[in-house]
Structure to design on (413 residues):
């Protein structure tokens, strides 16, 4: 199976809605369309952390992205994670999801494989503390057309690492933000609430 | 198998630091590459995230009362500052050109430890960095009042060769604790703020 890379996409929501509503195979499911389709299914999954412990809401939310055995696995994993987080007074706020590269195999009728490389930037609140995290992932997915529309049906993680410093990016700066966050994104997520006044080093540099 | 999208399990895990120095300190690293198309000079600067957030709050106040443009203004302000604090000399004379941010959305953004700023020197005349012999000096006077870790990485592909590199003996003498497998050796020796290099082509372009 041959993969090709897609680095740009049209607005995903319209396309996903179109594809999901079709009864038969879309007439032109090219690689760019598959990349958009994947992103439209994958990115919303991260909103599961905003749902609390409402089982039905969690399952319904995941069912709009996954199907079959994978839906069950995802539901169990996310629900148990959310329960554990609640017990440990931990909360997660996903600030940004950036897709760097999506390789798409030649689509076949009703099924297609993608390899995605993406980053997630978020804030973990644990009791009184907030911690930033930026993680980078690479995974193989299979998407299939189901009675409810296109869904992710298999997932295999290939790489996962925490990005602690951008210096490793110096030789290969990602085209996307790579899950790295801006000051405003961080502050609005509640990071820096415990900063003492005047923690900056003086924002004004002396002019030459 | 851990789910590829179960961000929480991994995100919530406490991971020990792998960076060779504490996240409270600044760093600056020169990246010089000589290749068939000439020589590129980039400086990567990392600023502790807590410092960046402190500066941002000082400048703009309540993050919920300001608009999104503040991010872009702040980022440009940082780039402008770094541009003023970097110098490139060629043959002993200040090279005509300017330090510009390396294009990319990640440039000027941060992780839990640092915000990364990548600046590249863009010469007014491209021939400036294509001479047969280049005597370079990069002055990294960034954040002059801060304790800062410094490093340099110099790479040369044919037809170029590195004749001398003032960073080599300094970095070679550093403690192994300041070695990071991803980013190389680091030092607090202030002489690294002035990197002197001689590069030479082994054949005519």
């Amino acid at each position: 199976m041959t993969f090709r890379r897609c680095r740009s996409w049209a607005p995903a929501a319209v396309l996903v809605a179109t594809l999901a509503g079709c009864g038969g195979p879309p007439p032109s499911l090219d690689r760019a369309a598959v990349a958009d389709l994947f992103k439209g299914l994958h990115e919303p999954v991260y909103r599961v952390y905003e749902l609390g412990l409402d089982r039905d809401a969690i399952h319904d939310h995941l069912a709009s992205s996954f199907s079959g055995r994978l839906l069950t696995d995802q539901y169990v994993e996310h629900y148990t994670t959310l329960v554990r987080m609640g017990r440990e007074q931990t909360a997660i706020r996903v600030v940004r999801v950036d897709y760097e590269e999506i390789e798409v195999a030649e689509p076949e009728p009703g099924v297609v494989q993608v390899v995605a490389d993406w980053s997630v930037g978020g804030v973990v609140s644990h009791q009184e503390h907030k911690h930033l995290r930026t993680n980078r992932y690479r995974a193989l997915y299979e998407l299939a057309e189901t009675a409810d529309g296109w869904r992710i049906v298999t997932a295999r993680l290939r790489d996962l690492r925490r990005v602690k410093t951008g210096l490793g990016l110096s030789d290969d700066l990602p085209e996307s933000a790579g899950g790295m966050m801006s000051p405003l994104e961080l502050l609005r997520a509640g990071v820096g609430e415990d900063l003492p006044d005047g923690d900056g080093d003086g924002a004004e540099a002396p002019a030459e | 198998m851990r789910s590829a999208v179960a961000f929480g399990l991994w995100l919530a895990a406490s991971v020990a630091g792998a960076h060779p120095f504490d996240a409270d300190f600044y760093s600056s690293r020169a990246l010089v590459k000589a290749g068939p198309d000439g020589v590129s000079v980039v400086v990567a600067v990392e600023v502790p995230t807590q410092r960046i957030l402190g500066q941002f709050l000082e400048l703009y106040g309540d993050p919920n009362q300001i608009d999104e443009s503040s991010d872009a203004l702040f980022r440009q302000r940082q780039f402008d500052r770094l541009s003023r604090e970097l110098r490139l000399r060629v043959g002993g004379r200040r090279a005509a050109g300017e330090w510009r941010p390396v294009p990319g959305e990640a440039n000027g953004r941060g992780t839990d430890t640092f915000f990364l700023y990548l600046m590249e020197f863009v010469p007014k005349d491209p021939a400036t960095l294509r001479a047969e012999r280049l005597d370079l000096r990069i002055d990294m006077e960034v954040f002059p009042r801060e304790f800062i870790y410094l490093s340099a990485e110099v790479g040369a592909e044919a037809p170029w060769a590195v004749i001398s590199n003032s960073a080599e003996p300094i970095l070679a003498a550093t403690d192994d604790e300041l070695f990071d497998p991803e980013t190389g050796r680091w030092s607090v020796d202030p002489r690294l703020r002035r990197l002197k290099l001689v590069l030479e082509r082994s054949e005519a372009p």
